[in-house]
């Protein structure tokens, strides 16, 4: 673990919850820190997007996509994602913290792993990847840097930043975002990816663990990409003779250039890995190099794949699953003339082979010139997604490509309007030098009809939304006016990212977030209950009740010591499950003192008595003679009575 005390984030409290402790790693898109979740009192890894990328909608969308993709997976071989959010200008992702190293660090220290070590690591990688493929997620960036080896022995896949939902062929304008060394041929040539593209990357990693190096090398990334597109991955036993043939075959199957020839997904490859493990454990493994093999002379007739009864005396040699007949070795030569003839024959054959090598070398050089820098050379279309038109044009022209004067317009969820959403042909496609490329200009997300969701049940609202919008996890709150399980309001965001009531709009943008606020019904009525009964009634609805605030009030209807109700929340604050409600306890009926109004005029005495809440019993004729004076009242002045009690008044009438 690396630390940097000068990093401004170290020591900072993010979102009022995550205390950053030290820096773990830094990548091209984000930095990962060790932090403490103060709320749950546990260590976490917090991934913070680089500040200069925070305003880039493409990178931010990819950052959020990582959280959503990983959050859909719950598997012991996938790093858990706990939280994602934005604190001021800091976009962050909170993940499970695994003290340990990456597979890349292990390979830097031990380039060649044993068969058992490689298969154990592959078992964990394929198990986690199978869960992703089962959930329709393609990782698209598998490499040793994204495989974590924990100190306690757990092995997990991380970094789903490039993951996308898998269709038959998931096309992307960012086809070359994955690391070049692990890109499948279809990603290089056509920019499409599906589960079999992940399998190719897994096969390259298995080769690297067994052979001690990557299969393809080059001074420039495009040279490596071209090898992935055009060359077959060699067997790891060509570098490490101790690798059994069964693992050679597994690597060749996973890295076939044609996706149709690979395992359909991680589950299929995992099953074959287990079968290979069974064969190796049983001692039936087929040797590759370093083991003496019988001399084999190819027969003049056709190869026979299986033995026949009349061939029982002949031995067999198995090469990658194909059996061929063996014939006895050549007869020993026993004469000087025969030996001389054989020597001349070998000499003649050596000269012929030398000439052939020269011819092939010349042809190879000519072919390399033709396809490398000559008329037949190709150039890989670079990624320009997210660039403005001028920048994208400059990048393409620098790559010796011609930009079409007529751009095409497309709708895009990930790229803001006016920026480049991709190219036609797609990025990663190999085209001739000077080839024409059309820019795809984003018109932003497509506007779609927005159904009215308020007043519908939650299930009905989700059915109305369908797959057109990105439905977030519903939020639930108590509402006295809306029945339980009915949508109160649906929230989205406008083009500036501000909160938007979707009930006020007729159209909304494709794949934009929609959050349903669903009613839990009214808060339980606790009036007239004892404090204990009121707390129990609230708990049954997953609410908390308390008298810790010491709230009391008088009540004409609720006897002293029982609950009148609860303190309303601040305006705009919703009551949700887990909310703490402060209960108001009754002090009974309020006591008031009868005032001394004897001798006062009725004009002055009446409003004073009414103001104190008394009910008056008097001869109403006094209202016509307000100058009359009060002669007597009952109860007498100074008596404490319940507020609202009746006071009887007698007058000295003045006519």
TrEMBL record:
Annotated CDD domains: PASTA_pknB, STKc_PknB_like
Entry EC number(s):
2.7.11.1
In Swiss-Prot or TrEMBL terms, this protein is called: non-specific serine/threonine protein kinase
**Alphabetical list of InterPro entries matching this protein:** Kinase-like_dom_sf, PASTA_dom, Prot_kinase_dom, Ser/Thr_kinase_AS
- Per UniProt, what is one Pfam family of this protein? Pkinase
SUPFAM superfamilies per record: Protein kinase-like (PK-like)
Write one Gene Ontology MF term. kinase activity
**Could you tell me which residue ranges the PASTA domain spans?**
375-443, 517-587, 588-653
Instruction: Tell me where the transmembrane regions lie.
Output: 351-372
Q: Which residues form the Protein kinase domain?
A: 18-277
Keywords per UniProt: ATP-binding, Kinase, Membrane, Nucleotide-binding, Serine/threonine-protein kinase, Transferase, Transmembrane, Transmembrane helix
According to UniProt, the reaction catalysed is: L-seryl-[protein] + ATP = O-phospho-L-seryl-[protein] + ADP + H(+); L-threonyl-[protein] + ATP = O-phospho-L-threonyl-[protein] + ADP + H(+)
Annotated PANTHER family:
MITOGEN-ACTIVATED PROTEIN KINASE KINASE KINASE 20-RELATED, SERINE_THREONINE-PROTEIN KINASE YBDM-RELATED
């Amino acid at each position: 673990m690396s630390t940097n005390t000068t990093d401004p984030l170290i020591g900072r409290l993010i979102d009022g919850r995550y205390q950053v402790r030290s820096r773990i790693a830094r990548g091209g898109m984000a930095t990962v820190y060790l932090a403490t979740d103060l709320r749950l009192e546990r260590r976490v890894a917090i991934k913070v997007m680089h500040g200069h990328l925070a305003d880039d909608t493409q990178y931010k969308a990819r950052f959020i996509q990582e959280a959503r993709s990983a959050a859909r997976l719950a598997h012991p071989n996938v790093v858990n994602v706990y939280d994602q959010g934005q604190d001021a200008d800091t976009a962050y992702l909170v993940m499970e913290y695994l003290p340990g190293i990456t597979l890349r660090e292990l390979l830097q220290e031990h380039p060649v792993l044993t068969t058992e070590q490689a298969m154990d690591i592959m078992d964990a990688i394929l198990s986690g990847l199978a869960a992703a493929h089962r959930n329709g997620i393609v990782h698209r960036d598998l490499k040793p840097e994204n495989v974590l080896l924990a100190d306690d022995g757990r092995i997990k896949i991380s970094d789903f930043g490039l993951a996308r939902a898998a269709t038959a062929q998931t096309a992307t304008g960012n086809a070359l975002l994955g690391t070049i060394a692990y890109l499948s041929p279809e990603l290089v040539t056509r920019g499409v990816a599906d589960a079999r593209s992940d399998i190719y990357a897994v096969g390259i990693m298995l080769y690297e663990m067994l052979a001690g190096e990557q299969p393809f090398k080059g001074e420039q990334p495009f040279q490596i990409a071209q090898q992935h597109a055009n060359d077959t991955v060699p067997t790891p036993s060509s570098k490490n003779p101790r690798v059994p043939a069964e693992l050679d075959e597994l690597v060749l199957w996973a890295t076939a250039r044609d996706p149709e020839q690979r395992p359909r997904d991680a589950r299929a490859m995992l099953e074959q890995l287990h079968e290979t493990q069974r064969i190796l454990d049983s001692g039936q493994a087929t040797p590759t190099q370093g083991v003496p093999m019988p001399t084999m002379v190819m027969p003049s007739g056709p190869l026979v794949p299986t033995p026949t009864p009349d061939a029982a005396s002949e031995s067999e040699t198995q090469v990658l699953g194909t059996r061929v007949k063996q014939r006895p070795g050549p007869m020993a030569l026993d004469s000087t003339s025969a030996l001389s003839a054989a020597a001349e024959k070998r000499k003649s054959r050596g000269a012929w082979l030398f000439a052939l090598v020269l011819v092939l070398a010349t042809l190879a050089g000519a072919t390399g010139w033709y396809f490398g820098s000559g008329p037949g050379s190709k150039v890989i279309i670079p990624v320009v997604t997210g660039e403005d038109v001028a920048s994208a044009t400059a990048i393409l022209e620098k790559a010796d490509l011609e930009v079409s004067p007529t751009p095409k317009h497309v709708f895009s969820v990930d790229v803001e309007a006016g920026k480049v959403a991709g190219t036609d042909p797609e990025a990663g496609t190999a085209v001739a030098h000077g080839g024409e490329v059309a820019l795809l200009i984003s018109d932003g997300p497509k506007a779609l009809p927005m159904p009215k969701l308020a007043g519908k049940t939650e299930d009905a609202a989700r059915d109305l939304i369908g797959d057109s919008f990105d439905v977030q996890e519903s939020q639930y709150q108590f509402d006295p006016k809306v029945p339980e399980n009915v949508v109160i309001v649906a929230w989205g965001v406008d083009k500036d990212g501000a909160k938007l009531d979707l009930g006020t709009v007729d159209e909304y943008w494709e794949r934009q977030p929609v959050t349903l606020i669903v009613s839990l019904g009214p808060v339980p009525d606790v009036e007239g209950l004892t404090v204990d009964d009121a707390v129990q009634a609230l708990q049954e609805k997953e609410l908390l009740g308390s008298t810790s605030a010491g709230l009391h009030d008088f009540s004409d209807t609720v006897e002293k010591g029982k609950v009148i109700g609860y303190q309303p929340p601040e305006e705009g604050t919703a009551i949700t499950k887990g909310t703490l409600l402060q209960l108001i306890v009754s002090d009974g009926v309020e006591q008031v003192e009868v005032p001394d109004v004897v001798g006062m005029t009725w004009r002055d005495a009446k409003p004073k008595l009414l103001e104190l809440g008394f009910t008056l019993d008097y001869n109403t004729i006094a209202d016509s003679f307000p100058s009359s004076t009060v002669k007597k009242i009952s109860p007498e002045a100074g008596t404490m009575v319940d507020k609202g009690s009746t006071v009887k008044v007698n007058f000295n009438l003045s006519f």
